[in-house]
Amino acid sequence: MINEAIRDKLALNSPSNAFNIADFGCSVGPNTFIAVQNIIEAVELKYHGNHQNHQSLEFQVFFNDHTNNDFNTLFKNLHHNHPRKFFAAGVPGTFHGRLFPKSSLHFGHSSFALQWLSKTPSEVLDTKSPAWNKGSIHCTGFHTEVAEAYSSQFKNDMETFLNARAQELVNGGLLVIIMPALQDGVLLSQSSIGVTFDLLGSCLQNMAQSGIISQEKVEAFNLPIYISPAKGLEALLQRNGFFSVEKIDRITSNMNTNTLTAQFLTSQLRAVTEELIKGHFGSEIVDAVFELFNIKLSENWFSIMDTKNQKFMDLFIILSRNFSD
Amino acid sequence: MINEAIRDKLALNSPSNAFNIADFGCSVGPNTFIAVQNIIEAVELKYHGNHQNHQSLEFQVFFNDHTNNDFNTLFKNLHHNHPRKFFAAGVPGTFHGRLFPKSSLHFGHSSFALQWLSKTPSEVLDTKSPAWNKGSIHCTGFHTEVAEAYSSQFKNDMETFLNARAQELVNGGLLVIIMPALQDGVLLSQSSIGVTFDLLGSCLQNMAQSGIISQEKVEAFNLPIYISPAKGLEALLQRNGFFSVEKIDRITSNMNTNTLTAQFLTSQLRAVTEELIKGHFGSEIVDAVFELFNIKLSENWFSIMDTKNQKFMDLFIILSRNFSD
């Protein structure tokens, strides 16, 4: 799909110098290397076909993630990932703001990063607010004011992301976004990922009841994650004046429940939430949280794996930077 | 001096986009941030005076060091070093080769990095070679064949460094190099730093005699550091066809021996050589090496601090990228 996007939608003359690619939310690899490799091969193919000057084209790839991402590991993985056809750089900092000079990128990429909010909306932690998310650690969808607070933070974050990228990308450049979304009418707690968040929340509640962690700490903890309804996300992208929506493809994630194990799902959730739990509750309780989660998941396996909870999809989005400002 | 260099020698039209700076051998800060801040202020001053368009000029700064440099610490230090006027990126990899696309840098900087060789010349570790450096861990200067092997490796490394930078810098761009050099006719073991290397070597010999480390390991250990005679370095720079030597200033490092302590000097040497010793002998012996070094340094303080050993200087070098290839 990236190949097609570059062939059909990349509206650039052959860059005189280097072709600059950035991956926003790269983590430590190897997924980011695979994505970048795909992009480079597609660009080489395009310029080889059209301009016969692919040999002189050089690539510079910028790997972006939070400052507390483990760039040392990223760079070591990159170093062992020979041969590579590009010059590499790591760029620390939040992508909800400018990271690059004006018009310095030809291609942006972001995979499974934009569901992360820049922060948990403050109202959902405020016991005096109608949006107080009592008894839950995420945006289940059942509580309207909570959903609105999360949705509003998400809109704000998507706008700051897109507006920053609009400045950094050259006119005609492409931005590919892959991110999870909900089917219309489905609430997060009715989806497979929402059910696991609920289960994680119940583990923290149990540990508070046992006095291992404080009730106040649990009430002050909400995941800064928002899975948008697909339609809302599409409307938000259409509304941004800097980009044209070239493509939105819906890819339904059908987990093969036959080969899944509780341990595997636990390790997946741990990879996603461990740093947050460590930061909020302290590193000494992390093992206990996920041991309890693993037990509860095994005990409730069949209700959690219920196929009516699998209404979850990923969106493959291609935006092109408009020529007019 | 950097200010003057940028004012008088930077032969660039105002860059249309960003002004790109790279620091080669940046370590983890804060020295690299101070250097970069100086460069940016001088460039802003120049374009403010000449072109009145400094407000639209953005800066992108690339921090380069080996892949095993602690970029996580660099990025955290950078993050806490507010406010900053530039977009930052870390670039892992050896500077004895290409790191950036062609003509993508306007200013290169390297401070106290080019005395590090890409490797210890193999002859000096070869017991069958006339250049075998028996009984020493560095290029003392007393052994002609050893000095030639080190000097040849240094020439080779300087050439690969300069040739790579020549491709990466735009025509008219500047390369500032600060590096140690020896006064003409002085051997390394006659300089303050050479004396401390000799002392470190004697510590390793003592530990081998005591059976703490093996004699073979000590014989297979030589520092990949070369302090060139100033004249030889100047000739080497003059010979490179890609750059013009705009300035070479000699700055004599006069250590204030009154305020120096053995502990301070030991910590300085440890900062420079710890990783090498750890990599070669194992981390478990590092503390013992520098404890012994500290004792020996205290015992021999007056002979080591002898002013006739201070014939040591730093060179401040400005090269400009020629317009003709």
From TrEMBL, chains A, B:
Keyword Lyase appears in the UniProt entry: no
Biological-process GO terms, alphabetical: methylation
Keywords: Magnesium, Metal-binding, Methyltransferase, Transferase
UniProt entry tagged with the keyword Magnesium: yes
Pfam families linked to this entry: Methyltransf_7
GO function terms (MF aspect): metal ion binding; methyltransferase activity
PANTHER family found in the cross-reference section: S-ADENOSYL-L-METHIONINE:CARBOXYL METHYLTRANSFERASE FAMILY PROTEIN (PTHR31009)
Name the record gives this protein: Probable S-adenosylmethionine-dependent methyltransferase At5g38780 isoform X2
Gene designation per UniProt: LOC105123449
